[in-house]
Design brief:
Radius of gyration: 32 Å
Number of helices: 5
Strand content: over 45%
Low-confidence stretches: none
Mean pLDDT: 87
Shape: extended
Order of helices and strands: HHHEEHEEEHEEEEEEE
Structural class: mainly beta
Distance between the termini: 64 Å
Largest sheet: 12 strands, mixed
Length: 304
């Protein structure tokens, strides 16, 4: 190729910059005689990575609210019926080429359909109380049950491997949600000048915590379900096997700075302090605990 203007100007600096002719390279790569189709790869593609999931949720709730003097009561319950249908292919065998030389037929022998299903029906009740102690002071208390759904990769029974930890991990369509029973008690004082100060205590008890659980050991042999690989690896899958408890207290202060002049009246100062104590089984059977975790947040926001 011809020298560039940069190379002509800096020829004394040494050798030229490495270059290539795009037309020549394109001609080489475009030559079909230089390419060979990977028939094994093409035969396995309809099976590898085919992961389907359908989740259906039927839900209903009933809720009521009443007021007796200075006491307000809000209570209700929500019911959910969840069904999970999955489909994927798993390579159970490793048929030798000598037994079946055709890669398409060999893939049909090696891969088998896996379509485990799951589901659950859960109730989520809640009771919330509010009492006006004075015109500016209010007490609140609530008990409720909440939940966190499993993620899609946790539900689909597809396989992944970790050579460092020597594990084989698959999904679990029968996995249920993580459940939390919540208790909250709070006192709120409202300032006349658009402000609020509150102090509250809370406790959350989490059950059916989702964690990876050991189910067995991969056996040796060419037809161990993993093409003869991963002998001795631990088979794991997500399970509802953990629990946790979080308790603490929180103080919150918010004040709109209405005493400032002009547009500064729209500023609001906010400060929050949270103290936490947590304990739970997140892996294995030994509880993990943290005591006295503290968080402080201070900020300023504006509305003009």
């Amino acid at each position: 190729m011809s020298l560039t203007r940069f190379e002509e100007k800096n020829a004394a600096a040494g050798q030229r910059i490495p270059t290539f002719d795009p037309v020549a390279v394109n001609e080489e790569l475009s030559d079909p005689t230089r390419w060979t189709e990977d028939l094994v790869y093409a035969a396995q593609q309809p099976y590898v990575g085919r992961r389907l999931m359908d989740e259906g949720v039927d839900a209903a709730y009933i809720q009521g609210q009443g007021k007796l003097g200075r006491l307000t009561l809000l209570a209700g319950v929500r019911v959910e019926d969840v069904s999970v249908d999955t489909f994927t292919y798993v390579k159970y065998l490793a048929t030798p080429v000598a037994v079946e030389p055709d890669p398409v037929k060999r893939a049909k022998l090696d891969y088998g359909a896996s379509s485990p299903d799951g589901g659950y029906t859960k109730l989520f009740p809640g009771v919330h109380l509010a009492f006006d102690i004075t015109h500016n002071l209010k007490a609140r208390a609530s008990w409720s049950m909440s939940y966190g759904r499993p993620t899609v990769p946790q539900l689909i029974p597809a396989l992944s491997f970790n050579d460092t930890n020597e594990t084989v991990t698959g999904g679990n369509p029968s996995l249920g949600p993580q459940l939390a029973r919540n208790i909250d008690v709070k006192l709120e004082y409202y300032f006349k000048s658009s402000g609020l100060f509150s102090v509250g205590v809370f406790e959350k008890k989490i059950t059916d915590y989702i964690l990876n659980r050991a189910l067995g050991i991969v056996q040796s042999g060419p037809d161990n379900g993993y093409e003869g690989n991963f002998a001795g690896y631990t088979i794991t899958a997500p399970s509802n096997a953990g629990d946790a408890r979080i308790r603490g207290w929180e103080a919150d202060y918010r004040q709109r700075l209405t005493f400032l002049p002009g547009l500064l009246k729209g500023l609001t100062f906010a400060a929050n302090y949270t103290w936490l104590e947590s304990k739970g089984r997140f892996a294995g059977i030994v509880p993990i605990a943290t005591n006295g975790a503290r968080t402080i947040n201070v900020g300023m926001s504006g509305q003009f």
